């Protein structure tokens, strides 16, 4: 009798594990199984923040948190690494895990909320999967009015601090701070304007 119930329990466990393996195309939930008690599975999750987007368009703090919901909803899967965004990035995974999707050179620009124009959807989704906190601003190139910084007060003063508050210049260079940007303007780049705050 004990042997029959042990075999039945083992069959139930293997059935659950095979369901996980078949149903999960992108999420690796078996990694997080810590034990089985009765008919419920216990999943112990780490506290690291490495966001993933579920097929329910919910952002989970990490893959393990998604797997906790998967136990309750077998239709759930990981859509892509990174936060959920307004663009369908299904299948895009973090670079470096051997599954990075190569991107084409086609030009269908996407403007991110960070002011960066991505050449195409693939490059935008790769940035999202890498963990960049960006979302869709609009389709097409980002348009920003050039920002002018008054550098007249700094004329003749070429001593700058090492503070890092990056500015992207219209020349495509990243200047570490306003002082270094103004030094470039005062050295003869009078047409230089700010493309946007942050790195180019």
Automatic annotation (TrEMBL):
InterPro entries: Kazal-type_SerProtInhib, Kazal_dom, Kazal_dom_sf, Prot_inh_Kazal-m. Residues 1-23 form the signal peptide. Keywords: Disulfide bond, Glycoprotein, Protease inhibitor, Repeat, Secreted, Serine protease inhibitor, Signal. It is found in: Secreted. CDD domains: KAZAL_FS. It comes from the Eukaryota. Its main location: secreted. Residues 23-86, 87-144, 145-200 form the Kazal-like domain. One of its GO terms (molecular function) is serine-type endopeptidase inhibitor activity. GO terms for cellular component: extracellular region. This is Ovomucoid.
């Amino acid at each position: 009798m004990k042997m029959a119930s042990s075999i039945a329990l083992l069959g139930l466990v293997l059935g659950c594990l095979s369901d996980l393996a078949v149903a999960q195309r992108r999420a690796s939930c078996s990694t997080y199984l810590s034990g089985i008690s009765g008919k419920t599975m216990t999943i112990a999750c780490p506290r690291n923040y490495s966001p993933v987007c579920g097929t329910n368009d919910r952002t989970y703090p990490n893959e393990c948190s998604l797997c906790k919901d998967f136990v309750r909803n077998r239709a759930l899967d990981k859509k892509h690494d990174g936060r959920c965004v307004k663009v369908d990035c299904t299948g895009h995974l973090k670079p470096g895990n051997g599954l990075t999707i190569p991107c084409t050179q086609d030009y269908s620009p996407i403007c991110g909320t960070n002011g960066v124009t991505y050449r195409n959807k693939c490059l935008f989704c790769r940035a999202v999967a890498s963990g960049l906190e960006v979302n869709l601003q609009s389709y097409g190139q980002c348009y920003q009015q050039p920002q002018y910084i008054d550098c007249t007060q700094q004329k003749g003063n070429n001593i700058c601090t090492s503070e890092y508050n990056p500015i992207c210049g219209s020349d495509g260079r990243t200047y570490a701070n306003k002082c270094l940007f103004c030094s470039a303007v005062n050295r003869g780049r009078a047409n230089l304007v700010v493309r946007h705050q942050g790195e180019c």
